[in-house]
Amino acid sequence: MIDVRGEFPALAQRVHDRPLVYLDSAATSQKPRAVIDALSRFYSEDNANVHRGVHALAERATAQLEGARAKVQRFIGAARADEIVFVRGVTEAVNLLAHSFGRARVRRGDEILVTALEHHSNLVPWQLLCREAGATLRVAGVDQSGELRLEELSAMLGPRTRLLAATHVSNALGTITPMAQMVELAHARGVPVFIDGAQAAPHLPIDVQRLGCDFYALSAHKMYGPMGIGVLYGRSPLLEELPPWQSGGEMVSAVSFAEASWQKPPHKFEAGTPDAAAAVGLGAAVDWLQALDRDAAAAHERDLLAYGLQLLREIRGLRLLGPLRERVGVLSFTVEGVHPHDVGTVLDLEGVAVRTGHLCAQPLLHRLGVPAVVRASLALYNTRNDLDALAAALRKVRETFA
Amino acid sequence: MSATARDLYQELLVEHGRHPRNFGLLPSANRSAEGSNPLCGDELVVRLRVRDGRIEEIAFQGQGCAVSIASASMMTEAVKGLAAGEIEALQQRVSALVSGAAEGSLGELSSLSGVSRFPTRVKCALLAWRALDAAISGAPGTVSTEL
After folding, report:
1. Of the residues A2, A48, A360, A391, which is catalytic?
2. Residues 6+ apart with CB under 8 A from A252
3. Do A357 and B14 touch (CB under 8 A)?
4. A372 contacts in B (CB within 8 Å)?
5. pTM above 0.95, yes or no
6. ipTM score for this prediction
């Protein structure tokens, strides 16, 4: 077992006169002291603009930013550091691809394939691209428990499919998708694959070369890092081929009044001053995760999930959503006769923070026949006590609405 | 003192939330409007039959949290028979009540008073009232809490 709770200052507080029980980590995780200190240290000691300037601080800041890039490269098993593009998060990564890859590769009559598990961030940019390009967005379905129908996905991969854009882990249900098989199916038909790793990165070991994917994106703030920074991984030949997205300073090699030429990747995709402090914070989050005993951490998460499922099954009128196997620590449910919003308010008054609503996955919930749910999501700093507090607070919900 | 669940979920509110009055269609309606809260997915339709400037009949349908449904239910009971000007005055008193700007006795509607301690839920309490306002004024489209 691991015990990291004490490293997270935000957890040591009371809300509504009760100890905070933070079960909303799939929305954003809390940050360990190591990450908070890294941000503070960057601004206290090294702050300068990166990739320009010859002075000492500029060199230190640049070295730190590039050091963070190398840390992320190792964290996700990329072959080269220049395959790591800093972005604001997965949303920006998808928008970058929809613009750049879309412009280069998607034409009238083409198809983009996604799954029914996608967060709005891996759906809406493709909708816009398809509308503009005259392409078609296709959606591979899920069964009632939220598991992907692999045969359906396979059948939808056709001669006009230009990209498979799919999530590694569902934010709404915690479903782990069979990504290795999905990549194999897509590649067998010559279709490149983008993976939304926002919910996977905090829970699963990521190895983009073993997965064989072409693109992979993650958001630092969901994996114990700062907000406002994330990464788009792209295989080097693809990043070389794709046109820039945003343009301006930092991404150019030579500029005249008539034209400009681009830097090589990743800088071609990093116009403007990056959030270098946040990138350094992401590097610190990667260091923090990699210093943990990963087997013990995985065992801790499995134990919490199993314990949580067991506790929730004992609560009358509670309906659990999501698959029985192949899932991470996401507990989504409804309470009979009580709107998720009201459940969320009663839990909050008991000090228990959860997410309620459509979870930015409206089409998925619609397909599962629920307009809104309650989601309790787990992280390494949670304990069995947190889940006991959740169960007790849910009994309070039943009392309030009895 | 810290707020408790019962401050918000007073028994009368819970009861109206579970068993809303005037819930359903109103075939004879001559006015209607939809209200939606995109943040939580609440959606209500308010239908009225107005004659000589007074509400003769009112009904609502939709789905939402206990606060929005209970407020809609109590609203339908409170406004029946009232004229447009009276409804506007009542709406202002309810708005003041749930945002904590004023107290005062409003009959059953007083059970919405706890909302004032929960700023994020004020929109829920006022959703039906905004739809009613739109129905009376004949505004087209859906009124949203986010506009």
Report:
1. A360
2. A260, A261, A262, A263
3. no
4. 40-41
5. no
6. 0.89
